[in-house]
């Protein structure tokens, strides 16, 4: 299955999941099983599946064929070249292709001059009026391609301006862009481009990042320390005619070398193999030459040879557009698409699926608790009523006063629950403080201050080390406090359970260790970035500000996720208390009512017992149905072809 097909199926699975989840939520509501915690879990699962994005970044030196490869893999359906691809430097700014239904099809361009301001790229995204917008007509490939040429636009500025924009470095003259006869320097016109089109793959959450080659990026630390490390796959491209050059290696070291876990998400492509096709050589000779280039590239990059995939993007594109199957096979493009499908999509689906399954287990437990209390209340009533069989009125009267007394006693439980709540809140506030924005802000202000010190070069590692050390410490403290809360909840829930017959269960605490790993990764990507050649840039005014702002945007995501999980955990605990209190109160009034009716001889005892039996049966059925519905949601295989999911799922729920 190709990448595109696999992505399509993934999309179909997500749509089906979303629909089933919606129906499940309606069913829960109809049966009064939707408390605050259940609702929150539903919402999270829905958002998680709906907003799941897969970002594939194409990274390489200029002219290796990044844009051509994007055209060949994703846009051949337009019947022409869509992303500009030509000899020499073409793509001048990082270009993100994606789909946002809220925005009409357009190309948005952020002027390069925004670099003179301190805001990070992420922050500019929130200011749409600063972007130049060009509307796109997706039904007109010619207009589309024409509009996208804008990503290749350049400007000519003085050396001073180029320096301020981050394109001129006195310390590294060999890397500076060329100057024209008037001493002007050519720099990109745009800093970043966002393309929003309703392409089928983009609509399903694929995001493609095309990047410019070395030097056209200039000082855009965010690309290196944030955007590329967060991509789910990075495709690194070499050209068969040039092999691995010094600048290829520089890019490889800065962006692709990661230690360990994510090796599958790195793909190396040896492009332009057609330049080795030659009428005077036999196919065997040509293949031998390709194999040699492949082996030597793999050797230099320190990879097994199978990890380098030879292709011809250009011939692949031509073959797809003209429907030439033989050429398509010769281009080897299908093999690359397969590798992308298995490596990237396979991984992504696995991760999303296991997250969804875990979420469903929690949801099932949460809703199951409500059912459990109801069942328990019914069996209590049942015992009570069976005990009344053949008893006289004075016994019945006595029973009534006993229930009333129990009710009064129960009302005192309010105070105990209140006490649990207030300890819980106090500890929780500590966690919120540790994970809140002010803590982060203070730390990052300190880091900026340190990085600005003259002669910091040798101390960069230490400065980062100290900052991250403190961040880790506070995260660790948040983890400990959370563990304390968990113990406290478990103990007080146990006590309340035995005292009032509740079935409270402390929800699973958030996995804080994961966030510690995130911190480590972020620190590493920064040090790696600075370790190469960029450390010299710290001498530039504003560079450290920009670097730390980029860091802040990434850290904020980690902290916000952590906070979100703490919140959900807390909500679940609080709503369990609410739900049990509510059900128990209902139970008292039901019992009193039953006794009253029996006292007034309005209903016979047996009749009432039958009624409760019916309720019990209904509850058992409800529990079974809940099992069935949640199991379906966690089992739905992503690779099942989507057969009219709407009708299928709707029928299932109607049966409920
Ligand atoms: N012969 C041959 N040429 C190719 C192939 N792929 C790309 N090219 C050519 O190489 C040139 C550069 O391709 P681009 O796609 O613009 O390269 P890029 O990596 O995006 O370059 P920048 O945008 O400048 O960073 C273009 O003229 C392409 O037509 C290929 O497989 N074979
Ligand atoms: Mg390009």
How many H/I helices? 20
Q: Work out the number of β strands.
A: 11
Number of domain modules: 2
**Widest β-sheet, arrangement of strands:** 4-3-7-2-8-1-9-10-11
**Low-confidence stretches at least 5 residues in length (pLDDT < 50)?**
638-656
List the topology elements.
Elements lengths: L2 H28 L5 H15 L3 E6 L6 H9 L20 E4 L7 E6 L9 H4 L7 E4 L5 H8 L5 E4 L1 H7 L19 E4 L1 E7 L3 H4 L2 E5 L10 H10 L2 E7 L6 H11 L9 E6 L11 H19 L6 E3 L2 H10 L2 H7 L1 H56 L4 H43 L1 H15 L8 H41 L12 H19 L11 H57 L5 H31 L9 H11 L1
Helix pairs in contact: 1-2, 1-13, 1-19, 1-20, 2-13, 2-18, 3-11, 8-17, 8-18, 11-12, 13-18, 13-19, 14-16, 14-18, 15-16, 15-18, 16-17, 17-18
This protein binds guanosine-5'-triphosphate (GTP) and magnesium ion.
Please outline what is shown here:
With 656 residues, the chain is α/β, with parallel strands linked by helices. The chain is 62% helix and 9% strand. The chain folds into two domains: 343 residues, no CATH class; 244 residues, P-loop containing nucleotide triphosphate hydrolases (Rossmann fold), CATH 3.40.50.
Polypeptide structure, described:
Helix content is 62%, strand content 9%. The chain has 656 residues and is of the alpha/beta class. It has two domains: 3-47 and 358-655, no CATH class; 53-153 and 189-331, P-loop containing nucleotide triphosphate hydrolases (Rossmann fold). The strands form two sheets. It has a nine-stranded mixed sheet, with helices on both faces. The longest helix has 57 residues, at 543-599. The two termini are 36 Å apart. Guanosine-5'-triphosphate is lined by residues 60, 62-68, 85-87, 89-91, 212-213, 271-272, 274-275, 312-314.
